[in-house]
Amino acid sequence: MSEELEVKRIRGTGWKSVYETLRNEILSLALPPGQLLDEMTLAERFDMSRSPVREALIRLGADELVVTLSNRSTIVAPIEVATFPKYVEALDIAQRMNTRLAAALRTESDLKIIAKRLKSFEAAVKTSNHLAMSEANKEFHMAIAHAGKNQYLASFYEKLLSQGQRMLHLHFEYLERTHEGYLLTDEHTLMLNAVRDKNVELADELAHAHTRQFQDNFINFMRENYTTDVALGPLRAAE
Predict the structure, then answer these.
(1) What global pTM score does this model have?
(2) Which residues, at least 6 apart from 9, have a Cβ–Cβ distance to it below 8 Å?
(3) pLDDT at 125 over 60
(4) pLDDT tens digits, residue range 140-184?
(5) In what residue span(s) does the HTH gntR-type domain sit (predicted)?
């Protein structure tokens, strides 16, 4: 009877452990962009049938972390460097709008949550665990977004933050190597203070500067590590 229950559990929930493990490995770049994800190989690795593995891959596809090719094979989604300027332009607008709204509409309860997320990020930075840092960074910015009280803008922002986590991983690597990691925690503190003071214009400026710093450091990382020339234009202010 216990074996039968175990089979039912795996069929119903086994995909979650596969999904979470693969997601973490993709975001941390342990599974690099373009890596083939073979269902049979993964089933053997996780000691499961192919059904939960297939379900996990479907959900990773919904997160845009894997893509299915025309021959039905699945690979880790490439990091589209050529479209980075468009990505960062959208991120800049979403970050500025959500931070502006938070400064205008935040409650005392919102401030406590944002401050808590800031402490979590600072703790993650001390561990030098880039995956923990990117997750904590996302939670900090989403706490600000939720304080803005616009679920549509917050949802759009969350999607962009999720799509950018692998690039943020490289961003953290660059900051760590150049000893400029302190800038992130300082900027987060300044953003929290602007939201607390209901200083909408300052919150806007800080959000824009935060995006620009991410862009500049990611471009510097790419220039150091890749020889292919990719046109990455300057970040314009989103009016």
Answers:
(1) 0.81
(2) none
(3) yes
(4) 999 999 999 999 999 999 999 999 999 888 878 777 777 655 556
(5) 12-79
